[in-house]
Amino acid sequence: KVEKEGSLLKEGIAKVSVHAGEEKYFELPFGDYNCSEELVYTVSLILSEDTLWAAKGYEIAFGQKVYERKETAKTTPTSTLKVVHGDVNIGIHGKDFKVIFSKQEGGIVSLRYSGKEFITRTPKTYYWRATTDNDRGNKHEFKCAQWLSASICQKYVDFSMEEQADKVVLHYTYELPTIPTTNVKVDYEVSADNSIKVNVAYKGLEGLPLLPVLGMNFRLLSEFNSFSWYGMGPDENYIDRAEGAKLGIYSSTPLKNLSKYLVPQECGNRIDTRWVAIKNEKGEGLKFSYEKLPFEFSVLPYNNMELENALHQEDLPPVNFTNVNIIGKQMGVGGDDSWGAPVLSEYCIDSNKDLEYSFV
Hints:
Distance between the termini: 30 Å
Number of strands: 23
Strand order of the largest sheet: 5-6-7-8-9
Number of domains: 2
Low-confidence stretches: none
CATH architecture of the largest domain: Distorted Sandwich
Helix content: under 10%
Order of helices and strands: EEEEEEEEEEHHHEEEEEEEEEEEHEE
């Protein structure tokens, strides 16, 4: 079948017969599509009749091919932005839209659409995931503990901004308490179409341990209790645990996305995400979309530190917030042949190298 962002364009069935030990090639009648948007071609191998072990129609295997979207010229917004400078805060106003940036807190302190407030604290970058059982088994928390302190104790050190008629760009720099010290720059580009582009750039340095994750946490009120996404699914997946996932549009809730492990830990991740939309029962919400490359994400009732600090599920606090994590890259799960087996090198993140990602 051929799909465009979850919508079926074409579907067909081809009956094939291949003897054991043989291979054949078949030309599939997908056709050509003159389309600037991303197309997903999916081929599934399904049983044509009932067997002792599965019913007719059971999917044995599948494969997907993605034809990437073509770059199109962006339209210039016709409206303009109003910028209000204060001693501590900078307010930017658009049509039914207002965002306040703090020079003291180092980021967004208020985000309103049509008068509705969406965030409860300044979004923060983070570099540590809640330790998994596999991580504990290979002493990951001992080897990479610098990134835990970097997530908690990063220091905002510099700010600058540029104003234009149709956009405002704000630059924040954070210093991380690693040895040696490195930094992360976060740029916000506020456009007159009421969108905010976020770019996160990590400066790699030699001598640092492997980086567990590079992400950004947005804490929303718990009323935003459902989300949908266009990415890999339906179940949680990681860069080394994604062979059974399909690219498509799915939906869930923060509570359903929380895996009930005996010991709370990292969970609920999705890779290769094009967009994720978080909403309340009124349909109000935020949508995060990829800019250049698809991102990873999770939506959970708890943040990484709450999961890290809980020994059992009953140690988790009451649910007060919805945590949206937009992730540039997260290391794999590991444990390929036993609990505690380290993550394979191709699924690790080299902290010596620069790493950058962006979303809107």
